[in-house]
Amino acid sequence: MYEQRFEGKKIAVLDVDGTLSKGYFITKFPLVLLEKSLFNTEKLNNMRRAEEELRTGKSTYYNTGIKIQDAYAKGIKNQKQEDILEVGFEFVKQNPEFLFSYSKELIEILKNYNYVVILESGSPLDVILPFGKLLGADLIYATKYTIKKGIYTGKWKGTPTLSKRKQKTVQRFIELHNSDVENSIGFGDSYLDFPFIRELGNGVIFTPKPEVIKTIKENNWLICNKEDEVLNQVLELLKTI
């Protein structure tokens, strides 16, 4: 949806899981829901099996993503959206340690430099929305689950290929708002974030694996390996843009 206040502005697009948070919300949040009898135990076990299959090489990232999303969607089936959202806000407020020490201040710095701050995640919108609001993001994109009359139906929306979904979201936003691409920045922690970062003029990669270092250097992206140095590194980058 077009918003005039974003017209022609530079954007900062940030992956969430592993970039701003210590781990994946989609695997942490169900445990909290289960404690409040809002998640199905069998579906939680399905999610754990899918994670184990990925760790042991028995499944691909693509197939694992589908299994985890399916299990989550069925895990909250027949629950009220308002109940899940309420727990999402509680979780974010009560677990500040789940964020990296730099996360909140990084968003503040970007906004002070007049960036439109956009968060992108494959985790549930029910918990990413509260997280994004806490940080002060302008826009938040995450996985949505189908709802009928305020009740979850057990299905989810979107494409299983999260990497392409993030890229298309950025492409659509840029085209719609005529964004200042050259001075925009993408933040991520995985090669799966590279497609959307390539759409922007600058990139910041957190604790990358050795096999992608060459690609990062070829694109002249900033590498951040130490949590306590992130803010200073980003500030130095912003001075050059």
* Major sheet strand order: 3-2-1-6-7-8
Give the CATH superfamily.
Answer: HAD superfamily/HAD-like
Largest sheet: 6 strands, parallel
Q: How many strand elements?
A: 8
Structure write-up:
- By secondary structure, the chain is an alpha/beta fold.
- The chain has one domain (4-240): HAD superfamily/HAD-like (Rossmann fold), CATH 3.40.50.1000.
- Helix content is 47%, strand content 17%.
- It is built from ten helices and eight strands.
- The strands form two sheets. It has a six-stranded parallel β-sheet with strand order 3-2-1-6-7-8, sandwiched between helices. The chain has a two-stranded antiparallel ribbon with strand order 4-5.
- The model has no long low-confidence stretch (mean pLDDT 93).
Pick out its properties:
about 240 residues, alpha/beta, Rossmann fold, two-stranded antiparallel ribbon, 8 strands, about 45% helix
SSE order and pairing:
Blueprint: E1 11-15, H1 25-35, H2 41-55, H3 61-75, H4 81-94, H5 103-112, E2 116-124, H6 125-135, E3 139-143, E4 145-148, E5 151-156, H7 162-177, E6 185-188, H8 194-198, E7 202-206, H9 213-218, E8 222-224, H10 230-240
Parallel strand pairs: 1-2, 1-6, 2-3, 6-7, 7-8
Antiparallel strand pairs: 4-5
Helix pairs in contact: 1-2, 2-3, 4-6
Describe the structure concisely for a colleague.
This protein is of the alpha/beta class and 241 residues long. Helices cover 47% and strands 17% of the residues.
